[in-house]
Structures are given as structure tokens and as C-alpha cells.
Backbone:
């Protein structure tokens, strides 16, 4: 196999690289303290997960995984914690459903352990 054959073979291969993993935003709120500390502690806890992605340049994307945890006692918020864990990924030679799966499932799955 000569050099040009190797380049042609490589041109069709999927390209995937993690360039960066970082915290984009993090916040913790306890809006009803210290009153909440006097109540019986039996909160209802909910967790929301969201993902977004933005194309930065050709084959380079920022993917943001947002985890929001809210604890309530009755109608009062005991605490709210939100983490936006982000990453910059190089993704090449994927289209349509494969690209959507990569950016909306595969990349967020890589970010999740860091956000925990």
C-alpha cells in the first residue's frame, strides 16, 4: 500500500478526540436557610439532566451537560445545586443520526462522571 492509498483509507475513518473537559458553571443555593434547618428533614428531591452542543468550527464542538438537583420541603426550596460540565470534542466523518447520537449521548456520557 502506498502513501496515497493510506491517506484515502484514513480519510473515511471516524475521527474522535477529547480536547478539553471543564466546569462551565456551578452553583449552590439554599434560599430558605436558616428557617429550613428548623423543619423536619424529609425533602422531595428531583434531578433534571439536559445537554446542549454548539459547533465551534469544522469538526469541533462544545458539549454541555447540565445537572440540576432540587430538594423541597413542601413548597419551600431547601437547596438547589446546578453543575454545567462541558467538553470540547473533535468529531469527524459522522453525519445525521450518528452525529446526533455522538453529540447528544456519547459525549455527555463521557462528561457525566466529572459532573457527579
Residues:
Amino acid at each position: 500500500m502506498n502513501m496515497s492509498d493510506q491517506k484515502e483509507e484514513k480519510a473515511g475513518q471516524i475521527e474522535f478526540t477529547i480536547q478539553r473537559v471543564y466546569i462551565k458553571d456551578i452553583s449552590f443555593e439554599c434560599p430558605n436557610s436558616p428557617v429550613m434547618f428548623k423543619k423536619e428533614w424529609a425533602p422531595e428531591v428531583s434531578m433534571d439532566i439536559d445537554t446542549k452542543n454548539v459547533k465551534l468550527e469544522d469538526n469541533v464542538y462544545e458539549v454541555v451537560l447540565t445537572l440540576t438537583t432540587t430538594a423541597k420541603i413542601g413548597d419551600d426550596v431547601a437547596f438547589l445545586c446546578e453543575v454545567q460540565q462541558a467538553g470540547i470534542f473533535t468529531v469527524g466523518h459522522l453525519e445525521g443520526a450518528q452525529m446526533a447520537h455522538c453529540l447528544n449521548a456519547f459525549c455527555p456520557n463521557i462528561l457525566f462522571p466529572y459532573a457527579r
Summary: The chain has a mean pLDDT of 92. The domain at 13-115 is CATH 3.10.420.10 (Bacterial Protein-export protein SecB). Residues 96-115 form the longest helix (20 residues). The CA atoms of residues 39 and 115 lie 30 Å apart.
